[in-house]
Amino acid sequence: MEGERCSFFSWKYGHYFEFLSTKDLNIKVRCTLCVGEKVLSTFKNTTSNLKKHLESQHSTVKLTERVPPSGPKQRAVTSAEGPTPPKQQKLDFGAKPVSDEELKKLVAQYIVEEMLPINTVDSPSFRAIIKKIPTSVNAKLPHRTTFTSYLEKEFTEMERNLKATLNEIDFVSTTADIWTANNRSYMGVMLHWISRTTLERHKVALACRRIRGRHTYDVIGTEIENIHSSYGLLNKVVATVTDNGSNFVKAFQVYHPVMESDDETEEEESSPKDDDVTFSDLSEILSAENESDGQLSLPPHRRCASHTINIICTRDVEKHLTTNAESRAVYRSSTAKCIALWTKSSRSTLASETVEEISKRKLLIPTSTRWNSFFDAVKRIAEIPVGELNTLCTKLGLKCFKDQEYQFLHEYCMAMKPVTAALDILQGDYDLSRMTAGLPDAIVQAIQTRFAGVLDDKDALLAAASCPKFKLRWLRDAGRRERVKQLLTAECCTTAPLAKNPASVPSATTSSSQGEMDFFTFEAEPEEETYSAEKEVMDYLMSGYDLQILHKFSSIKTIFLKYNTPTPSSAPVERLFSLGGLVLTPKRNRLSDKRLLLMRYNHWFTRSTLLFPP
Predict the structure, then answer these.
(1) Do the record's keywords include Disulfide bond (predicted)?
(2) Which one, out of 46, 228, 321, 581, has a CA that is 20 to 30 A from the CA of 103?
């Protein structure tokens, strides 16, 4: 009982109660503040009943807490204020104070990740917060000028680290685009590669540079080559992906070196005789070399597939619908009414509330640069029942949709949806009316026309065949499947390292160090099994579909890394510009802001390791 009494009276308000008795898990006490004999009951391990009694019956009494034997002075708490709030936990920054270098890194991480101006470090309120962090004796947050120098040093370290990583990578690709904001133009370049060990794709922001003057093909070509050469990438970039802009296309047409055909090469190699002697003018050779030194050399060009599909879904589809007599009128009238709905709801808050009230959803407003936004916006309207849709148009003072127009919207979404999911679904059967009956065929024809250079491109065929997920399964024609198989076999013969073919490497018995002792060698050493490209291709085609099986086929793995490194879209560099909108503003156009953008995209200060994966 004594132990129970001691446990009870350790409560901070226990001195207001007199212990009477205990039974099982209950304790009976008497309140000393009540007039008369007021007996209360509570559990041994809780005092909630007693606390409620004090709050309800003695709310006007100024209660004091029990003072521990060696604790601070009593603190008065008025019960009318409610329950005593829990003590605020103190910030714990670890046992060790933050050093000067750690403090700068933490602040740099905050500035870069949140895309804040560098002069934030001069803000008195920000510096007041930083002062609350326990630091070492000499640790002090620098001001803007010194902190800018620190960021410049970190940017240089990031570049050095990236260059060291690129020295260990054989194949890379880049995506490039030009972005204009606030009457200034910038070229952004992203770098992509596939890790040889993990087969995972990696990307980093390589550059964001100001472009002055007109965006002509020669300016674009010069800037791209300068960016590539600054990182030592001239012989490593397997392709550069851009949009279909005429200036980008012309730059690569002019400055990409055209390789001679195999026939021309064979003729040149077979024309001179073994005993023929050819004399050349030395001055002509030197002048030709000087001219070639000044000539730009760009990697192969790949057009952005997303941008190409966007053109198909806008220009080609609109051309088909407007030239077809069955669909011309209904296409124009239905889209005009959709545009009127989008315009009304986006410019009037009352109209927007009316749309949400009737249809229980908001309309999506399409943007001019993305076709899928137009598709999503039309689909949202087509999902509204025709009765509700016409009620909405009536309340907004717009023309109602006719049954034929509403049906056209549904058929348009039905025919265009496969483009956003999978192109082969276009081969399926659809129950379409005469208005849109020819639309799937028109889309297929547009795809075959605009992707004609890709469907039979050697690099694209090798990229698909060397990917375990596809191999040759996507080829329906047996003859074409055999041609791609032969193409893969020939590429394996070219890619196979010399170490796989011992016949091409001199053996120890024929080396010059043996000298005349070779004369007494009577038995030939057993030769190792020579490399067979046909066997590797057959084993690969009979293996599984997991990406990691490439580690078993070194030549095909090299082919995969080389031809799958280019990305099908230039969207990554557009995401860089999305971040750039937060930095490249009229008040923030210094060089440090552009470097801050690159460090933010690469997450330089928040990476688990400050080493880029090779």
Answers:
(1) no
(2) 581
